[in-house]
Amino acid sequence: MNVTKDKISSVFFKYSIPSVLGMLAISSASIVDGFFIGNYVGAFGLAAINISLPIFSFLFGFALMIAIGTSVVAGKLIGEGNNQTASIIFTKAVISIVIFSFLSCSILYFNIETLLYYLGANENLMDIAIEYLSIILIFIPFLMIGIVLDYFVRIDNRPNLAFITMLLSSIINIVLDYFFIVYLQKGIFGAALATGISQLSLIFILLPHFFSNKATLKFVSPIGNYIQILKATYNGASEFINEISVGITTLIFNYIMIKTFSTEGVAAFAVINYLLWIGIMISFGISDSLQPIISKNFGAKENKRIEEFLKIAFISTYIVGFFMIALIILVPEQLANLFLEDTNYETKQIVLNFVTFIWIAFLFNGSNLIVSAYFTAIHKPLHSAIIAISRSFIFPVLFIFILPMIFEKNGIFLVIPIAEFITFIIAIVLFKNFSPRKIV
Known about the structure:
Blueprint: H1 8-40, H2 43-79, H3 83-109, H4 112-118, H5 123-155, H6 159-183, H7 187-206, H8 227-235, H9 237-261, H10 263-299, H11 303-330, H12 332-339, H13 345-358, H14 365-377, H15 381-407, H16 409-433, H17 436-439
């Protein structure tokens, strides 16, 4: 499929459907994780995972930064017909992520207890958090490498392969969750092992593509220095900022939730993250699929096509948002019951209080993700970063300290919706100033 010439709706759905299904596969695996851990390990298991989230956010964010930044540059080069230089970018990106992932995870592994202490793990959570994170850190390098390969597979016109990979990885995770947690009764250790093995599978499924006849991108001699990789990585900085900001914000939220609601508050926040995760991952799948499409059309100077792609994307994310709002408003207690045992009354009540306000976020977060992805694709990393850091760090951190002073405990529940709303206003202003007609 030629993304610069073929029918716009066909191209959009050819890319977005596999991307969304892939993200749904990932989110469903995470939700199943939450289901098994919440029901067979307990609220402390959910809290342990949430305590570890900032570390995962940092590593995942760095992988996204390299993957998105370099793949967008490679996509533009392919759009210009320069396949050899695109292959050099691809090869250097893979080498970079291999070195960084194993080095960083090794350092974190040997300082795990100190790390968790600074992340807010108390005596009740420390042992179970160490048990979980020590296994995850062994396997995360394979996830980081898999993310980079996944983005280049999509740039190389194989979005279906990217989807199939995510789907198979998620199925492996779900099956192993049942086997390790329920059948073998390995608890949080089993949950971590299931997740790790599913991440390892990404490499074995994606890597053969680049040695096949279908591949435009090949492993070549990495000629020259890595300055071009640093520049390309900068273009994906907004995704790193977004992920690391989520990690820092989660760290602060965990502190506030422990202080206000004890350990049950951290468990409740973990459940809310699962509910947010569903809608955000679908919208992220849509926005993510735009990057190879827009970057190639940007290289080909097709501004009208970019406008049409964006229009379909905005409509799609609003449909997703309204569906999630209906689900959260109509069946909140049933959603909470998925992750919590019947005896967890206190945790469940905190979740229901959160749900009363959190649905508002779905009116705005999809549009924010679309505009941020658009700026990344047209090589405007600063503008993308402004949106990313606003919705995931600046406003959440600002409001988590201000709103509880005004609205007491309800102020905590209002933080995320208000942060998304103000970011939405900023995103619209930036988009009007750098619309496709103005930048091409």
